[in-house]
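Notes from the 1:1 (GR / supervisor)

We went over the backlog. Supervisor wanted to see one worked example end to end before approving the batch request, so GR pasted a single chain during the call. The sequence is below; no edits were made to it. Supervisor asked that the structure be written out right there so they could see what the output format looks like.
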Amino acid sequence: MRRDRLTIALAFLLAFSLGLGARPSAPLVHDDGRMRGSANAPVTLIEYSDFTCGYCMKFFRDTWPRLRAKYVDTGKVRFLYRDYPRSDRGAGLEAAIAARCAGEQGQYWAMHDRLFTTGGKLSSSTLLEDARALGLAQPAFTECLQAGRYTKAIFQDREDGIRNFGFHGTPGFVLLRTEAGSSEEPIVIPGAFPYEIFEEQIDELLARTGGKGKG
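Structure output shown during the call:
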């Protein structure tokens, strides 16, 4: 497989020069309803993201479908989504709250995918339209959204990304072996890199866990 060795080397050098490498604590990797794939997958991929971020949309459109098909749907990788609103108010934060509110009705991922598919055209009215399209109970969703019920938890996600991995923008990704007791430091991918970068890093981790990297 061809790869741009210089690009990935510089990216990881930049990441670790920002003080990364701390092992994430257990709360960062537990399933709170925002997990895709098998809980027993040998490798975990965490994304820190903003629904209004152009590069995050690029990852969702170009890279995520390939990662999902090869690794997540086959039980090799579990995927966790974490919020990283780039602003303390506005469309990004409202969209993150909307996804969490949809999660109360078992539709977190449906809302997540719909929000990214809109191409960043988000507003209070479009969020309500999305909820209707998904068949959500409108009064409960609207109350949750207007109350900003998950604001604190969303900002906590962002703080965890900054404190543990040094992220100062979106998207940011973390790869780590899932099994308990692993002493390896996580691999930090600071940006929407091409699919091949993720593939190579995942395959190397799978090889160390005894999993099958190449599909």
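Supervisor's comment: The longest helix spans residues 54-72.
Batch request approved.
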